Amino acid sequence: MTDADVSRAVPSSRAATDGPEKGRPAWTPERRQEAHEQVQDLYRRHLQLPDADVDRVYDARRGYVPLAEAPSVRDLFGLSLETVEGEELGAGDTDFPFALQSISKVFAYALALADHGREGVLKRVGVEPSGEAFSSLVFDEHNNRPFNPMVNAGALAATSLIKGKSSSEKLDRILSLLRLFAGNETLTADEKTFEAELQSADRNRAIAYLMRSEGMLDGDVEATLELYLHQCSVHVTSRDLARMGATLANGGVNPLTGQRALPGPMVRDVLTVMYTCGMYDFAGEWAFSVGVPAKSGVSGGVLVVVPGKGGVGLFSPGLDRFGNSVRGTRVCQELSLRLGAHLFATPDEDRFFSRT
Q1: pTM score, two decimals?
Q2: Which of 47, 160, 246, 320 might form a disulfide with 82, Cβ 3.0–4.6 angstroms?
Q3: Over the stretch 7-32, which tens digit does the pLDDT of each residue have?
Q4: Number of H helices, E strands in the chain
């Protein structure tokens, strides 16, 4: 499948200079070295993670397990950043592959928008924070739809909207979009992860059938569920996540390849929902204390977007009670408070993404 097949509404490519960062200078060697030291410092400051701070770890083959039962992932920690100019920085396990899990919801929603437009998608899934856990069975009963596409019910609805003549074609379109965002043609769904997810999908299956009984979901529930679990099973690295975030930060244009992954107005809609709903029932506190669009996944990944500036990809499997990476949350809070990445920070507070 070619990039042009990703969506009828998404151009296959456009020069990076057509994006919002046209004419912005690259970092000087001195600024690059300073940023490298800042990233290394962030990594070192959060390398220690007491067991008492971790609520659980998610294992795709066993579900949620105590940290003591997951020693092989105890110390995994990858921190990657990429600017809209294409500057790459990282520390730790930046090339360790892990499943996208709920981070895939961002891109399924993007593809649904490309296929149906804003109003078409709004008929099926809203944009309101639910205040509930991501696997909640609570819906927006007034509008007869899930609250937003970042919870499981809304993600199932968004996935069901993706166009294609077959399940394999729909999955190919999802993979093509993910590859465009990451600039990585090797991204694919891991079948072992998918099989394990399918065996433990009772709650998502119940959500999907309940939605169909209420007219919120059409068609073959099992096919929709399998497509959703396949997208969750795509393996990425923190470096991939950082470039995906940088592509969103750059108005939908990949800083590495120059290809446009998504039209600008749809990027705006995606980032808005990430900002208000992306961090589960911690979303409000995240918006207050970190202040940038983000999406987490139970595998320990966090995708962060600093609009107009860059993306951050984090991987650390130790989760808090909300299902968010403990290290990921803390690193982002420090990026916001100490380095001025918050959307509402003044320009002179930005001590990381600024070019001077």
Answers
A1: 0.91
A2: 246
A3: 334 433 333 334 444 446 678 899 89
A4: 11, 10
Q: By mean pLDDT, which of 100-109, 127-136, 224-233 is the weakest?
A: 127-136
Q: Which CATH superfamily groups domain 3-16+26-349?
A: DD-peptidase/beta-lactamase superfamily (3.40.710.10)
Q: What is the H or E stretch that residue 310 is in?
A: strand 310-315
**Matching residue, tokens 């993404």:** 353
67: left (phi over 0), alpha (psi -120 to 50) or beta: alpha
Catalytic residue IDs? 102, 105, 228, 280, 298
| Residue 300 neighbours by CB under 8 Å, 6+ apart | 57, 58, 73, 76, 98, 315, 316, 317, 318, 319, 325, 328
* Residue 236 token pair: 């990425």
- The pLDDT tens digits of the residues spanning 310-326 come to 999 999 999 998 889 99
* DSSP sequence for 81-111: EEETT--EEEEESTT--EE-GGGHHHHHHHH
Q: What is the residue extent of each domain of the chain?
A: 3-16+26-349
Residues 303-306: contacts with CB within 8 Å, 24+ apart? Answer: 303/103, 303/106, 303/241, 303/244, 303/245, 304/245, 304/332, 304/335, 305/245, 305/248, 305/249, 305/271, 305/274, 306/245, 306/249, 306/341, 306/343, 306/353
**Which positions ≥6 away from 119 have C-beta within 8 Å?**
none
| pLDDT score of 13 | 35
Q: Among 305, 301, 293, which Cα is nearest to 319's?
A: 301
Question: By the 8 A CB rule, do 156 and 149 touch?
Answer: no
Q: How far is CA 225 from CA 171, 211, 249, in A?
A: 12, 12, 30
12 three-class SS: coil
Question: Is the separation of the CB atoms in 341 and 306 below 8 Å?
Answer: yes
- Maximum alpha-carbon separation in the chain: 60
The 10 Å CB-count burial string (b at 16+, else e) for 272-300 is ebbbbbbbbbbbeebbeebbbbbbbbbbb
Q: What confidence tens digit (pLDDT) does each residue in 182-216 have? A: 999 999 999 999 999 999 899 999 999 999 999 99
Three-state secondary structure call for residue 315 = strand
